[in-house]
Amino acid sequence: MFRLEVSMYLAAPAMTPAVLRQVGALSSSYCHDTRLGTARRKSPPQPRLPTKQASQAKMYVPTDSFGGLSPEKVAANVLKKVSTFASLEIIRIREEVNAEEVENPSHEVLDAFMQKFPYKPSDEWTNQLTSSGGDLKIAALKLLQTREEFAQDAFDWNLVKSLTVDSLKEEDSELMKEYMMKSMLLGSGENEEDDVTAVEKKEDQ
To answer: pTM for the complete prediction?
Structure first.
């Protein structure tokens, strides 16, 4: 089939540059199998992963590392508890600033509840709060609404990423400096124990 198609092009009255390009493309898409005596197409190249996906593939975290949760899910659970505590403070400040306009302060009801049941960063504490009745029920609903608004509108997610990365870089830099200092002292002194003691004293200062 390959020879037939090429011969058709060669039999053309004029081999223009366009025709030559077509013949070249055709020949490159076939390779001859000497064992079978037939022509077969080359397998198409495998698509490469985009840069971001390739990077994520190299940083794969096994699903059982956090009890079946992803690192993002673990962080989300922590931030949910942070949002709950922050919302308790937001409600208190709002009502204290607008004390004249607030008829039934929710923060007083919440404070009374927390005196009996100190705040714990867990779903159990929140469930206990929402299961109550009366004014406490109203205060609980306000808390749920406030923490959702806080997470969606007030919490700076980009700042969290920036602070986390900066903190890691700063800590890594300090650890590398200490490592290099210890390596240099241990490699240059005759008495390694004295060198280690000198490094430890410097760190304490």
So the answer is: 0.59
